[in-house]
Amino acid sequence: MEPLQLGLLAAMCPADWEVRLVDDRCEHIPFDEPTDLVAITVEVFTARRAYEISEQYRTRGVRVVLGGFHPTLIPEEAALYADAIVIGDAEPVWSQVLADAKACNLQSRYDGYTGKVQNGILPRRDLYKGKGYLPITLIQFSRGCRYACEFCAISAYFQQRYTSRPVDEVVREIEAQDRQLVFFVDDNVVADPAMSKQLFRRLIPLRIRWVSQGSMDMVWDSELMDLMCESGCLGNVIGFESITQESLTGMNKAPNLKGFDRYEKAIQILKQYGLQTWAAFTLGCDTDTRQSLYDTLDFAVHHKFTFAAFNVLMPYYGTPLYSKLAAQGRLLFDGRWWLHSGYRFNHAAFKPAQMSPEELTEMAFELRSRWNSASSILSRFFDLKTNMRTPYRMAIYWMYNPLFRKETLKKQGMFLGMEPV
Ligand code: B12
Ligand code: SF4
Questions:
Q1: Where does a domain end: 49, 79, 111?
Q2: Whether 349 and 286 share a structural domain
Q3: Is residue 175 part of a domain?
Q4: For residue range 355-409, what is the model confidence (pLDDT) as tens digits?
Q5: What CATH number does the domain containing 57 carry?
């Protein structure tokens, strides 16, 4: 997908700055081409690779600025690999960073605050052309979420704050691009239902189709659901996380606990509206056993979700989960799994309570493989309310399930960096 934060950073550069976007996921980095400044976005899974890239430039005498989720959550680590780090959002400090870089007076740290979102800036989408990204436009309406789930990096980064953009501005941004398919990258597109309703009302005349991420409590507000669907929502990623109340309570997953006794009802409502839900599950909570993990898979298959993710619970630095596991001595890979040369993608990075880390890794892979098997994909298709609702819905189902299957299996066990430590 198109990297929204980089398009935004580029758009915030003054006109006399020449900008080039290089995406390490799909192209070679021209380390030896002359450049004055390098800016890299870093999240936990890309930290190791980002630090490698940074080192390559710094050994050539090029200054590097790091920003994004990971440097914000663990600035003392990121600072070791950069000339400057930006904590939090770039909007309030980026022009200062550039001015200081130009004056050869770069400071080691800049503190952005999580205040306004985007400040009226339109990302430089022209920079995405020709890189083979999926034909879906990423737009943010809001940032942050008011809930405080134990494992969530969003909650740690935004400290439970939530900010949305003026609806007019979002509408203008949608109108300024060509596509009819939009991904609102909001952490929780229904975090403030009143604001979400304002947005959805204004989306209706635009006749776009969109997907996003939202908390399950959306289903209990029928006006919200009506407007969401009328405005072109195809479905949302919803964090189901677990099917037991005990686990949800343990992880402080408040939006799911609100109507836990009506979990089945919630799913029926999603289906009535024809939403093609991407159900996300988190595996490895203290209450999880082998049986509860198999039950989770059965639950997902039974409900014929259009897509699902079976993620191993990950201790992200800065979250209450990380602190808890650290205090209990349960973190693996010296507690810095994202930097460890032995850590592989989708592997457990902590000692689960009721199984070994290896068992958890294997179980998660088994669930993913079974969910993505040809027979599972075929059987889940037969849902008149969602996947078979219209030819467009059918096309989505058949286009993306094989793609996600390929991606999931390809990423399993990948090392995070390129070079041995
Ligand atoms: C959209 C999205 C995706 C998309 C991909 C998007 C893409 N372009 O490829 C999809 C759905 C595919 C995806 C996948 C994954 N994602 Co994701 N994703 C997001 C999401 C929701 C929005 C990203 C975005 O565009 N935001 C809008 C931009 C404008 O905001 P931003 O990135 O925060 O940037 C601002 C600041 O951080 C700062 N900034 C950022 N970079 C830089 C760089 C510099 C130099 C500077 C100065 C400032 C700066 O300024 C920006 C403007 O204010 C974020 C959550 C979030 N709120 O950001 C999670 C998030 C980044 N993803 C996350 C994760 C874990 C994943 C997965 C690993 C999930 C999984 N288990 O498979 C995968 C794989 C990622 C990988 N590296 O392989 C985590 C990272 C956690 C962490 N501690 O780092 C996040 C934070 C979500 C979460 N709930 O925890 N993701
Ligand atoms: S509801 Fe979702 S985004 Fe909000 S804190 Fe919980 S996991 Fe994070």
A1: 111
A2: yes
A3: yes
A4: 999 999 999 999 999 999 999 999 999 999 999 999 999 999 999 999 999 998 8
A5: 3.40.50.280
Q: Ligand 1: distance of its center to the CA of 43 in Å?
A: 6
Say whether both 74 and 131 belong to one domain.
Answer: no
Give tens-digit pLDDT for 297-340: 999 999 999 999 999 999 999 999 999 999 999 999 999 999 99
Q: Tell me, what CATH number does 138's domain have?
A: 3.20.20.70
Q: Kindly report the average pLDDT of the chain as a whole number.
A: 96
Average pLDDT for 197-225:
97
**pLDDT of 421 above 70:** no
Ligand 2 atom index nearest CA of 155: 5
Do 374 and 246 share a structural domain? yes
3-state secondary structure the chain: CCCHHHHHHHHCCCCCCCCCCCCCCCCCCCCCCCCCEEEEECCHHHHHHHHHHHHHHHHCCCEEEEECHHHHHCHHHHHHHCCEEEECCCCCCHHHHHHHHHCCCCCCEEECCCCCCHHHCCCCHHHHCCCCCCCCEEECCEEECCCCCCCCHHHHHHCCCEEECCHHHHHHHHHCCCCCEEEECCCCCCCCHHHHHHHHHHHHHHCCEEEEECCHHHHHCHHHHHHHHHCCEEEEEEEEECCCHHHHHHCCCHHHHCCHHHHHHHHHHHHHCCCCCEEEEEECCCCCCHHHHHHHHHHHHHCCCCEEEEEECCCCCCCHHHHHHHHCCCECHHHCCCCCCCCECCCCCECCCCCCHHHHHHHHHHHHHHHCCHHHHHHHHCCCCCCCCCHHHHHHHHHHHHHHHHHHHHHCCCECCCCCC
Query: Which of 58, 77, 111 is where one domain is finished?
Result: 111
Q: Which of 69, 142, 154 to mutate to test the pocket of ligand 2 (most atoms within 8 A of CB)?
A: 154
Q: What's the pLDDT band for 51 if we cut at 50, 70, 90?
A: very high
The atom of ligand 2 lying closest to the CA of 215 is 1
Residue with the smallest CA separation from ligand 1 atom 35 is 89
Residue 20 sits in which domain range? 4-111
Regarding whether 271 and 361 lie in a shared domain, the answer is yes
Ligand in closest contact with the CA of 44? 1
Ligand with minimal distance to 238 CA = 2
